[in-house]
Design brief:
By secondary structure, the chain is mainly beta. It contains 6 helices and 20 strands. About 10% of the residues lie in helices and about 55% in strands. Strands 1-3-4-5-6-7-8-11-12-15-16-17-18-20 form a 14-stranded antiparallel β-barrel.
Length: about 450
Amino acid sequence: MKKLLLVLAVYLFTCGIALAGNMDTYGIGAKATALGGAFSANADDVYAPYYNPAGLTQIKSTTISTGFAVLNPDLNIDDYTVKNSAAIPNSGPEKMSDTSPNLIVPSAGFAMPVSDKLSAGIALYAPFGLDLKWQKNNISNPGTYNAYEAWIDRIAITPTIAYKINSKLSIGFGVSLGKSEAGQKYQILKFSALTGSPVYADVDLNDDSNYSYNIGVMFKPISNLSFGLTYRSRTSASYDGDIKFRGPGVAFLQAYVPPFTTKTSFHATLNDVDFPEQVQCGMRYLPNKKFSIETDLVWTHWNIVENQTLTVKELGIRDVIQRNWKNTLQLKLGTEWFVNNIFTLRAGYYYDPSPIPDSTFDIPWPDGDKQSFSMGFGLNLASHWTIDGVVQYVKTTEDRKISGESNGLNHSYAGLGNNPQVNLKGSGSIFSYGLTVSYTF
């Protein structure tokens, strides 16, 4: 029985832990989000430490800001079918939708000029993160054997300095000090079949401290034209936490299978799950005093997510999980209409290709190529207060079709020498809105 347990544990951890789809930010601060994230050649608010640290030199008075974004994901999987699995009868086709609550993402920042040439600021934000839930019922949602809840995030605080070399050229540098969390919940098919009752796994992992850095350059050759270049470095993360087993079937494991006779929670570590570096470059042009246009490109080094190494010493397991993500290049566009000194209208668009190949597609986030459309406003009240607002709609460009290629999905139903195949169609959208309030002293 102990030998069987270890075989099943290897299966469990091979298919259980997965980074969450495309976890890149959907925008930081209402102003930049309304512009589709095309902000590196302007970056004139307290979130410059993220978009372009050199932009802090444009802030002429001490400014403090706080804000939030509310994300409402709506993801759908159609025709989910499991074939050739000896562990369960052929299942599907089923239609599943996520049950995620609205996700609230806060942000805050502070910036001030130190001298005519030197500026400083600090920003608090979430550069990566998402949290999605699905139905737990394995009858209506056979994908629960892969995951019915998953999350990952990084929260960072970034103190930054910027220096104006001359009237045309500025540089900036910031260090992002962060903390990360990751986790997943799912039903273990093999353990459930062994015990005759459901067995669930809850994985909860943390990386208490990590860091990265941001470097930015801004060049304004003439008053109505500017260029921005930003490098956001790779963040090395190492997760430590627990995997806990629960459900009616756990009683069987405790009665007959060591080491469950003494415990149902085991220490786990997860490595090789770094957050990728990014390069963002942009150009902003003002054809007249009423309008601005900016276009940005963002390259993300997603292929660092190649393998993940999970270790559970108490079970003698060290397993390498293949991800094989691909680098991506986002196109971002943004425009502003300065209606008057009080009111500004904004609009933005970006195209975001998915980094996830069919062979490592996962249930937690059925990621696909996406387009984002945003609209927003800026409102200057009196001489001190500014309110920026945004609404954003992100939509997959077409259904994501998986026809048995996903090793991760297939392995969730493997065993007994069979060769299961999972077919599905995935699509989704995210609607969000946000508000940022700033006060200038």
